[in-house]
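Quick look at the format.
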Amino acid sequence: MIAVTILGNNSAVPAYGRHPTAQVVQTREQFFLVDCGEGTQMRMDQHKIRRSKINHIFISHLHGDHYFGLIGLLNSYGLNKRENALHIYAPEGLEHVIKIQLALAEAHLPYPLHFYNLNEEGIILEDEKILVSTFKVNHRIPCFGFLFKEKKFPRKLNIAEVKKLNVPKEFYENLHYGEDYVLPDKTVISNEQLTFPVLPPRSYAYCADTAYFENICNSIHGVDLIYHESTYLNELSAKASARFHSTAKDAAMIAKKSNAGRLLLGHFSSMYEDLSEFEKEAREIFENTEASVEGTCYVA
């Protein structure tokens, strides 16, 4: 299971109840913060996000609407006596900015803070259950998207069958990972008889601020859920291109070419109050599209 809670889906200036970019990606056991615009920690409180469960923060690029909320969050963690290490993945330069802010305030965080510079595409975090990789997008300054992919889940044991055939406990892990069991008389018992299938692993792609950029499709092909910026409607496509942003039509084209399962639109310009036209424009190309709504949790 991968779930995404939208904390902010507007562009630089808050408007119409929408806020700068931030979202929380949740798996079965972990919470990840993706971008941290102004007011992120207040949005966390509003939507009952347990900030103490966040150990990894991903910052797509160093435009203020994507990280100006970070120093406040880090300071709050310190005031709340956090002890667990916090890991921050961002383009080069963010560590320098944060250290200056802490030094000028003579603030000393009571927890370890680790920075990882994003320079190239590839895997940036991996454990036994999740893999996070980054890919380049096309923006005015270095900017990265993030792909979250669950690893294949172990199959569940059919306890009745396992006990009936006296399968030794030391073989249980082999069954979890799909291996057949061979009886002493060489009879092969299929794994399907001894286990139950589990839900297939899911995937989620966060496409940060970017002009229309088909290279993205190579990195996220077949993704279950994609969040792609759509700052403008297509009537302002020239403005979008000049500012290295996308339209709803652009986002839909990326979703279609990526063979994505579902598309969420976001990073809306403050010039728009009604977002229904964004959905309408995108659905002409990619039907399974929604304009993201702040406070809503979307399951991949």
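Next, a different chain entirely:
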Amino acid sequence: MSKAVYINNISSFLPNRPVENDEMENFLGKINGKPSRSRSIVLRQNGIKKRYYVIDDQGKIKYSNAELTVEAIKKLENKDFSLREMETLCCGTSLPDQLLPSHASMVHGKLKGKPVEIFSPSGVCCAGMHALKYGFLSIRSGLSQNAVCTGSEVISPLLQAEKFRKEAEKTRDLEENPILSFDKDFLRWMLSDGAGAALLENKPNPSGHSLQVKWVETISFANEKEACMYAGADKKENGELVGWKEVDPDFWLEKSMFSVKQDVKLLDKNVVSLGVKYLADICKKNNINESSVDYFLPHLSSMYFKQKVYDELVKQNLEVPYHKWFTNLDQVGNVGSASIFLMLEELFHSGKLKKGEKILILVPESGRFSYAFAYMQVV
């Protein structure tokens, strides 16, 4: 018999102080000493007003990805739960601190404590949801009594102007216009750092509310679509990726190969329609309609997509009015795999939730178009 699964606590950790829009280049620097041509356009469309970086205004890195994750996990401890009781640790991230060992292994190492099962899903924005699903399934199957699941990102060090110096010098040598290509510069003004953690258990909180996780579903359309967001690779004209191991090390610097890149045209064409259509299919299968949703939490990489998501929901006969939407993108930024944890954390501790209310989650991932969905009820 499958066990019920409850989220009994959610925490977050955002490094340093919030960075306002007009301060960003003070932290990230200017490529070739010149202001970015795309910064104002991207910021106007994405609607982000504040974000957090692990780098300070002197360019020093204050936290690693693993350290950031540990800080979020520690905040889960309270009178009802000690980390000494943790049985399963699931840590999702887009870019771990190193290629090996795994992210969860490094987080576990910094947490110390006792031996536990670990799981490190890879991916981009869905990595945190994959961590949540593994913890959910572990408890539901009876293999674990609890699981700590996280999503975290440390991207700001890769966004610093110094990381693109070699590429800028190369274009200048070739007498080209020495500016960064839009597929890289675009993301410098989109992404930020942070971590979130959730405690899943097989019993609800003895006092206060919990979120009963009804289901978590994921899907990939990589069989149909080429890579849209990538790092550590170069994209050929036919859409195929050439990985960093296949090219000369000099090319890594000349093309800023380890920077994160986004095919914006491919993103705009596919990311909303694929995900919302599949969400509608899932909701139909589970007899969920607009009246079955009290809070809709979509992970939006940019407010540019808000109207597009709404229009597609209407098209799929799953209209969820804006007053049911909950997002904090403008105040914390796009934190990739951590974003859904940051939204849930704020809502969970807001004092707004009432027993019986239901939460629908949509997390798109543009890497090669994957999606994660979840449905929860306040108990």
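The chain is about 30% helix and 20% strand.

See the schema section for token definitions.
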